[in-house]
Structures are given as structure tokens and as C-alpha cells.
């Protein structure tokens, strides 16, 4: 029984299992992962968009340092328990996934393929909203991005993304910032004048209210984050910049198109699939590109 963008009940069961057993999301690799669970039909039921890692917090007293929040791990010792090691085609070595950090690689298959193939990533300044394990941000760096700012609300995700950045040797090219739980908007931890060549997000798809930090990876009540992303695009994109949103929910994509029209933003689907032919929930997520029309 689907209502709006609600995930199938199986995902709720998986989330509860993770919280009770501390064993992370279903799926240890791209072959076994999936919002709908390994081996089940591709009906979306989660989001790959919220915990992340990096190599070092920003300087004390700066926005980066204050936003980082979580304690920095000691040398060689992760800040949170590692629940699995995973590999993806676009990265040269395995990533680690910390306890409570959402992991669903099937969400971003199309997005990561687009990143790897787009030469405009080279030297670009990138923002990822809701970085999770850091997967998408790290793919951007692997593709040649000059710098990436990645944000997440889950403190374990922030440390997770930092750790994966360290493991891949990207140094200070990744700046991971923790979003305050009481102010979870898309731009909360950015400076007033920060702008980007590319803004990416694979945010939560379900119109429900989260009750735990982990559930912020699944639920976007009233599509508030969606609204924040689209309405802020004009201010945060540099001239010629782009925003890529990855959603596996027809209702949410229709809402993006509606808000983009209201904000006078151009939008197009970067996918061979037709929205009219897709079920309400699907994997991998479909890419929507938003741009500011020239001279407007």
C-alpha cells in the first residue's frame, strides 16, 4: 500500500532490524544492496543520501569546524563501528560503512555513471547535500572535481565520509560538515556567499516525519528538503552551474518540476526512461537537472 512517496513496508522492517541489531542496511555490495532488499523487485524503499566521512574537521571556530560536531577518531581507529566493507565500480578501493549510516548503492547507479562520464567535473566546485557514506562525493573527486563540500545530519555519517576520504587519499579536497538536527535545510551550514558549479543530492523520498537520526535518510516530511533544494538553486549555483537530483519516486519528481517552474528554473530528465512508464517507486533513481536560464 503506497501513499505518496512512502517506501514499501519491507524497508521499515530493515530499518528497525538495523536499529535493533546494529548491522547496517541490507546489501553488502552493489550486487546485493537495494532499497527493496537483495533479490527483490526494484521497488524503492530508502535513500542513499545521508551519512558521510572525511579526513579532518575544519579549523576551530570556522563554520566547517563548528558544523563537524562529531569527535574525531584517534589515529588508525574509526570513530564508529564498521559494519561492512563495500566496493563500487567508480572507486579504486573498498569503502567502509559505519553503524547507523545508510547504504543503498542502487539509488545512485545512474548518478555515479553520469559523474564518471561528464568531463565538466574536472576542477569543479561541488556540493553534495546528504552525503551518507560519502560515496557520491568521492566519485566526484575521483572524476576530477577540484573540491567538494558534503553535508549530512547524522554525525556517524560525517565521520564515515571523512574516513572514506582518508582511505582513498583525497586529502583536504573533501570538506564534510554536520547539519544541525533542528535546522535540517539544504543550506544551513554554508557561508552566505558560497556558490558551486555543481550541486548534487540523492535525498530522502518519503513524505513522513523522522523520529531518529537514521530516519532522516528516509523521510522528508512535506518535501521540505526538496523545496529547500529547488528554491535555493538560483542563489547557490554559479553562472552556468547545474543541480542534479536523484529521485526514485514519481510523486517527488513531479513536485520538483512544479517547484522549478515556479522558481523559473529550467529542468530536464537525464535518463532514457520515461517518467510516465515508471512505477511510483523505482530503482535506480532518475536524474533531474536544474539550471538557471541565461539572463533570467
**What is the overall number of helices?**
7
Number of strands: 9
Secondary structure: helix percent: 25-40%
Strand order of the largest sheet: 5-4-3-6-7-9-8
**CATH class category label:** Alpha Beta
Q: Estimate nothing, just give the exact number of structural domains.
A: 1
Strand proportion, as a percent range, falls in: 15-25%
- How does the major sheet shape up? 7 strands, mixed
The gyration radius over C-alpha positions equals: 17 Å
**Can you say what the CATH homologous superfamily is?**
Vaccinia Virus protein VP39
Could you say what the CATH topology is called?
Answer: Rossmann fold
Mean pLDDT: 78
Query: Could you state the order of secondary-structure elements as H and E?
Result: HHEEHEHEHEEHEHEE
Unreliable spans? 1-74
Which structural category fits the helices and strands? Answer: alpha/beta
Termini separation comes to 42 Å
Explain this structure.
- This protein has 296 residues and is α/β, with parallel strands linked by helices.
- It has one domain: Vaccinia Virus protein VP39 (Rossmann fold), CATH 3.40.50.150.
- It is built from seven helices and nine strands, in the order H-H-E-E-H-E-H-E-H-E-E-H-E-H-E-E.
- The strands form two sheets. The protein has a seven-stranded mixed sheet, sandwiched between helices. Strands 1-2 form a two-stranded antiparallel sheet.
- A hairpin with an 8-residue loop joins strand 1 and strand 2 (95-98).
- The N and C termini lie far apart (42 Å).
- Mean pLDDT is 78; it is low at 1-74.
Amino acid at each position: 500500500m503506497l501513499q505518496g512517496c512512502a517506501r514499501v513496508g519491507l524497508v521499515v522492517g530493515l530499518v528497525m532490524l538495523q536499529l535493533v541489531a546494529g548491522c547496517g542496511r541490507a546489501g553488502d555490495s552493489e550486487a546485493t544492496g537495494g532499497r527493496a532488499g537483495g533479490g527483490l523487485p526494484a521497488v524503492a524503499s530508502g535513500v542513499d543520501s545521508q551519512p558521510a566521512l572525511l579526513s579532518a574537521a575544519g579549523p576551530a571556530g570556522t563554520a566547517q569546524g563548528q558544523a563537524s560536531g562529531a569527535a574525531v577518531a584517534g589515529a588508525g581507529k574509526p570513530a564508529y563501528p564498521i559494519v561492512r566493507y563495500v566496493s563500487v565500480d567508480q572507486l579504486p578501493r573498498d569503502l567502509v560503512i559505519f553503524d547507523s549510516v545508510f547504504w543503498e548503492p542502487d539509488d545512485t547507479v545512474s548518478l555515479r555513471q553520469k559523474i564518471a562520464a561528464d568531463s565538466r567535473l574536472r576542477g569543479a566546485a561541488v556540493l553534495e547535500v546528504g552525503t551518507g557514506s560519502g560515496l557520491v562525493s568521492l566519485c566526484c573527486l575521483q572524476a576530477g572535481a577540484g573540491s567538494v563540500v558534503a553535508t549530512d545530519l547524522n554525525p556517524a555519517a560525517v565521520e564515515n565520509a571523512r574516513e572514506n576520504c582518508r582511505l582513498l587519499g583525497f586529502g583536504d579536497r573533501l570538506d564534510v560538515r554536520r547539519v544541525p538536527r533542528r535546522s535540517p535545510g539544504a543550506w544551513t551550514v554554508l557561508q552566505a556567499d558560497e556558490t558551486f558549479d555543481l550541486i548534487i543530492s540523492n535525498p530522502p523520498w518519503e513524505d513522513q516525519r523522522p523520529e531518529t537520526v537514521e530516519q532522516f535518510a528516509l523521510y522528508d516530511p512535506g518535501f521540505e528538503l526538496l523545496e529547500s533544494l529547488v528554491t535555493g538553486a538560483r542563489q547557490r549555483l554559479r553562472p552556468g552551474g547545474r543541480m542534479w537530483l536523484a529521485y526514485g519516486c514519481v510523486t517527488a519528481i513531479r513536485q520538483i518540476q512544479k517547484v522549478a517552474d515556479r522558481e523559473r528554473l529550467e529542468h530536464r530528465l537525464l535518463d532514457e526512461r520515461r517518467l510516465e512508464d515508471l512505477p511510483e517507486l523505482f530503482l535506480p533513481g532518475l536524474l533531474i537537472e536544474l539550471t538557471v536560464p541565461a539572463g533570467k
